[in-house]
# Entry
Amino acid sequence: MGKLEKVSSEKHKHSKVLVDGVLANNANVHMSHIVLQEFAEVAQYYPIFLCKDSDTGQFQPMALFGLTVDENIYQSSGLWRKCYLPLKIQSQPFYLINDVDPSGNNQQDKPSLALDVDDNRVQQQQGNSLFSQDKATAYLQQQTKILADLTQGFVLNRAFITLLSEYDLIESVTLDIKYNNSQECKLEGLYSINQTMLEKVPTDIQKQFEQQGYVPLMSAMLSSINHVSTLIDIKNALLCSTEIA
Amino acid sequence: MSKSLKHVVIVGGGSAGWITAGRIAAMHNSKSAQGVKVTLIESPDVNIIGVGEGTWPTMRGTLQKMGVSETDFMRECDVSFKQGAKFAKWVTGDEDDFYYHPLVLPQGYFDIDLFKYWQQNNQQPSNSQNSEQSSQPKSFSAAVCFQEQLCENGLAPKLITSPEYAAIANYAYHLDAGKFAAFLKSHCINKLGVEYVSDHVGTINSTDSGDIASVNTNNHGDISGDLFVDCTGFSSLLIGKHFQVPLISKKDVLFIDTALAVQIPYEKGDDAIASHTISTAQDAGWIWDIGLPSRRGVGHVYSSKHTSQGDAENALRKYLKSSIGEKSEDLTFRKIDINPGIREKFWVNNCVAVGMSAGFLEPLEASALVMIELAATTISEQLPANRECMDIVAKHYNERFSYNWDRIIDFLKLHYIASKREDTAFWRDNKDPETIPESLQELMTLWKHRSPSEYDFSQKREVFSAASYQYVLYGMDYEFTQSNSEKDEKEQNLAQRMFAENEKITVKYSAALPSNRELIEKIAQFGFSKV
# Structure
C-alpha cells in the first residue's frame, strides 16, 4: 500500500483508474484475503486455506494463488483472466481508512473511502473516472459497494472462525511438494478444517452450523484444496517449458 | 480382594492442592460417575502463602494436561514469560559480573560436549579470520545457546502466531501465585468435576490399621476417602501433626532462612518486562526480581545468621533505588520465615504430602512449583488401584522423592560453592566442606575433569538435566583441568559448526521475535490459537 488519500470530488476530480491493470499489478501476489460471501465462487478456482495474520495471530480465510511467496501461478499461466477475482483484489486501489475526528467529538468511527495515489493504475489520462460533474461515477459507487461488502465480510469471517476454533475444527496443513524436475518445496502456515473433529461435533452444534449456513462454506473449503494439485500440474508445465526454452 | 481406590481427598488449596486435584481429576475422569472422585477441602480462614512466582517449562505440560487454555491462564494470572535466570554478582561480586542459566539446551547437546571447544576458543583468542569480532570472549551460554541474547534484549520466546504452549525458545512463566490458585480452583471445579468443600479440618479419624479413615470438618461432618493428600503447607496437618513424620532441616547446607518481599509497580506503562528471573547476589543472600505484566515482584532472601533484618532491608532498598530512585525509601517489606527442610517420608499409609508440607527450600531456581508438579504427576500416573498396591507405590514414591529433593539441594548448593566470592562470612561458610553434601562433593571432583553428563543422573525424570549443571558451572567459571586427550578433528569441525549455527540462529531469532511486553499485550488483545 502506498500513499492513501481520502477520496474527495475536489481532490480527485480528474483521477482515473486503469481497471485492466489489476492482473499485472498482482503478478507477485501469492494469496489474498477473502470473505465468506464469496467462498462459493472462490472455491471454484482457488484453494482456500486459513492463515494467521502475522500481527495478531488471528485466522483469516485466504485464496492461494501460488505455491511460494511472491508466486502467482494464475497470472503466470495466463489462467487468471478466466477466473473469479476475490473482492479484496477487485477493490484495489481503494481502501477504507479510519478517520480521526479532529474536533475530538466522539463520533462513531466511520471509515472513509481512500485511494492509493501511488498505485500505478491511478493517473489522469485513461481509465475509469471517479467523479463526473462532482458526482460519484457508477465505477466509484461499485468500488464503494465492494468495500462495504468486504467490511461486512470480515465481521462474518470472524464469527465463522470463532466457532471453528471453539470446537477445535481448525488443523494445520503442510504441503510437501515435489515437482517433476525434483525441485522440492514445503508450504507451512496453512490451516484447514479438521474433518475427523467435524464428525465428532455434537448434533445440536451441527444444527447451529447448518442454520448459520456454515456447512456449505466448510465443504467449499475442503473441496477447494483439490486446486492445489491443479496448481502443481500447471507449475510443472511451466517449469518444463522454461527448461526447454 | 482389596477395595479399589475411588475417592481422593485433598486437604488444602493453594497451588499444591489445586494442581494435584487438577492432574488427578483430568487423568482419572472425575467428571464421570465411573471416574475417581476428587474432593478438595480448603479452610476459609487460612491464607495462601504465595510461594514462588516462577515456574519451570514443565508447567506448560502440566496446564495442557489439565485442559487449561494458555491464553486464559496468561490473561487471568498476570503471567509473563520466563526464559531462564540471570545471576548477577554471583561469581566475583563485581558490577559487570553475570551469567545466564537459559532454558534452551546447548546447541548439539545430544551429539557433542561443546564445553572444551568453547574453552579452547577462549584460550586462543581470535586468529586472523575472526579478528573483526569483538575481542571480548563469549560466555559459555552465549556461545552455545541463543537464549541469553533474547533475554538481554527483552524479547519474547515466541510469536503471536505460535500455537498455545508451542515455543520458539523454550520457556516457563512468571505468575501471580494468588491469582494462579484462584484460576486453577475455578477450572478444577467447573471443568474437571472436582468437589469443593470450604471448611476447616479439625480431628483426623483413623482406622484400626492406622490409615486415615476420614477428616472431621466443622460444617460438613466426617469426610472419608481412600487416599488423603496433605496440601496444608507449613502447618502440615496430616503428614506432620497426625503421622508425626519429622521435617529434616537443611539449614546446615542451605543457610537462607528469611525473605523480605515487596511488589513494585512499573514506572511507565511501557516499561520493559524482563523475560527472565534476575537474581542478584548480596553479602548474606540474594535478591530476586521477577517481572509480571502489571508489576515486579522483588525480594531479598538471606541467612539470619549472617546479617540482621535491618541490614537486609537496607540492601533491598539499595537494590531498588537503582530502578525506582527515592521511592525505595518509603517501601515496607513483608517478612516471611523460611524453614529449609524436607520431610523424612512423603507418603505414609494412605496419606501423601505435596507442596510445603513435603518440603521447602529457598526459591533459587524456582523449585517449589516444579516439585508440586512432579508430585501431582507421579501421584496421578501411579495412582494405586487399591489399598493393597498403595504401600508398594508409597515405597517407590518415597525413594524417588528423597532422591529428587537431594538433587535439588545439590543443585542449589552448587551455586554457592562454585562462586569465587570470599568477601563475606556467608560466602566463605558456604564453601565449608562440612556444609556440602557428599553426593555433590563427588560430582565436583568428577567435573574438574569432565563435563556434567546424563551419566551423572540416573532417574528417568530428573529435576535438573546435566545441561543445567553445565550452564551454572561454566557460567561461574569453575576450575577445570583440560584433559590432554587427542583432539578429534571430526569433532573439532562439528563443534565449530555448532558455534556458527548458534550465532546464525541468535541473529535470526533476535530479529524475528517481538519484545516480551509487546507479545504479552497482544495475548491480552488477541490470544493464541490452539493450533
Q: What stands out?
A: The interface with chain B takes residues 52-59, 165, 168, 170-172, 189, 191 of chain A (CB under 8 Å). The CA atoms of residues 93 and 116 of chain A lie 6 Å apart.
